Amino acid sequence: MSIDTRFMLQAIELAELGPYSSNPRVGAVCVSNGVVVGTGYHHGAGTAHAEVEALTVAGDKAAGADLYVSLEPCSHFGRTPPCTQAIIEAGIRRVIFAQFDPSGEAGGGADVLKAAGCEVIGEIESEHSMLVNREWNHRMRIGVPFVTLKFAQSLDGRVAAKSGERTSISGVQSQVFTHNLRSRVGAILVGTQTFVVDQPSLSARETDGSLKVSQPLRVVMGMRDVAPTEFLHLATHDPKVALLSLADLGINHVLLEGGPTIAAAFIQSNCIDEVISITAPITLGAGPRSLTTDTPFMRPIKITSTFTLGSDLIHIGELESAVGL
Q1: Three-class DSSP category at 6
Q2: How confident is residue 253, by pLDDT bands cut at 50, 70 and 90?
Q3: Which one of 72, 78, 166, 228 has the fewest CB atoms closer than 10 angstroms to its CB?
């Protein structure tokens, strides 16, 4: 393993400590003469970027040092000044980053640094870094959030004992998995039917029932009137319209937990990127299936992971990326 790879992997590990938010997760490592003199990661919107945090820790030792960053340093003024400015002022000799910034607003930092006399090397461990920001990269590239469809079903493919009735299917360990997933997404979306029948909280909770620190935006979609709630109501039946609205709010990742009808609508609109199915070792014999549609369709899913949680079988799979809007 090369020295550049070793320090870049350290920067990516730091990036993974960052919160899931509208911003990318970024880590940085400042190295002088082969010794780490400063590290940092982005703690969320409005806080110092990873590069600035690492340079602050390094202090005077940053002059003539190398800076490893998991994402191309930004070159624009947002809530904080551009990182390129801080890097240049610190006297960094060489900047090594993992992936180019795909956003039109903040991209181009490499060219700014080169113009200022810094040596710049890009795309070191880029695939690894891109996975850390899979959903943010998707929104920057496609223009809408990454969508994960999650549902629990019986062995005979039923999601409830009968229509309009809430049925508990998955086990305790699967429920913990779901709450951890909820804490990592930007929004959870259900249809008005699920909202009325299940009256879901759509919150992310710890095993003791307390709320997790990170909570998703709770969204209900559909034309039916709903009483004023803490949910965001998107009055549309069009998944693409709904996703564009959520993209405007900076949402990178949407967890779709609605019923069979809204799930089918999203799949038919080519708006699902990932599917998580939880199959419990029970049979219901009747009731709605995981997808409800009058129009037959087939969409291949590439299974990426299969494992068990308690008695439940979990399948995670990818669909082809949604079309740009």
Answers
A1: helix
A2: very high
A3: 228
